[in-house]
Amino acid sequence: MDESDLLPLSALQHLLFCERQCALIHLEQVWADNPLTVEGTHLHEKADSGVQESRGDLRIARALPLRSLRLGLSGRADVVEFHRRPVGEGWQAFPVEYKRGRPKSHRADEVQLCAQALCLEEMLGEPVPAGALFYGQTRRRLDVPFDAELRRLTEDSAARLHRLIAAGLTPIAARAPKCDQCSLLEICLPAAPATSARHYFDRALRAALAPDAE
């Protein structure tokens, strides 16, 4: 796969949360913040700084660029810890992803983290067996082993993401409880007749530019 065909790692999280949200963001280039996304941005500030650290047997890389030509994904890891192995055996990579809130009922966060590990394995040429999710609300890490089931789900999700983007079609809106947490709620309009955000904005723009009726 060519570099130009790579899709954002972050799109996997959007895909598993909601295919329509994923299409709105990555096909129609629509984005809006809400208090939850702003909270997530603040949580990532240190990780996004790119500052590197070294503490004895631990090295910490922040905002580390990642890619996988096999999965067709690229992006950045919040944090990758490198733990020193026994003498002569090098360093073990351990990705850590920062998330607002608390652990979720779906596996979107785990898939995004596992995709980072698969990128690291392809780049480093060695196994990455586990990582961790750090949640802002609980202020605790959740260890995530990259077992066969999670790896398979991650690979299937990457393939599904490429199919969605290649099709170029935004799924129709369907109201669900999770919609209340989505920053695109007022754009997506899941309770309204199905439409695309681009058409919604086109109509709004035409109405705004039309001369006032006298």
Structural account:
By secondary structure, this protein is an alpha/beta fold. The chain is built from seven helices and seven strands. The protein has helices spanning 10-17, 19-26, 35-43, 108-124, 148-167, 185-188, 197-209; strands at residues 7-8, 53-55, 58-68, 73-84, 91-99, 130-135, 140-145. Strands 1, 2, 3, 4, 5, 6 and 7 form a seven-stranded mixed β-sheet that branches.
Briefly, what is this?
This protein has helices at residues 10-17, 19-26, 35-43, 108-124, 148-167, 185-188, 197-209; strands spanning 7-8, 53-55, 58-68, 73-84, 91-99, 130-135, 140-145.
Q: What labels describe this entry?
A:
214 residues; alpha/beta; seven-stranded mixed sheet; 7 helices; elongated
List the helices and strands and how they pair.
Layout (H helix, E strand, L loop, with lengths): L6 E2 L1 H8 L1 H8 L8 H9 L9 E3 L2 E11 L4 E12 L6 E9 L8 H17 L5 E6 L4 E6 L2 H20 L17 H4 L8 H13 L5
Parallel strand pairs: 1-4, 5-6
Antiparallel strand pairs: 2-3, 3-4, 4-5, 6-7
Helix pairs in contact: 1-2, 1-4, 1-5, 4-5
Give the strand content: 15-25%
Mean pLDDT: 86
**Helix- and strand-based class?**
alpha/beta
Multimeric state: single chain
The largest sheet, given as strand count, sense and whether it forms a barrel, is: 7 strands, mixed
- SS field, number of helical segments: 7
Unreliable stretches, pLDDT < 50, 5 or more residues? none
- Please provide the ordered H/E string of secondary-structure elements: EHHHEEEEHEEHHH
**Radius of gyration from the CA trace?**
20 Å
Whole-Å distance between the termini? 58 Å
The counted number of beta strands is 7
Query: How helical, in percent, are the residues?
Result: 25-40%
Characterize the overall form.
Answer: elongated
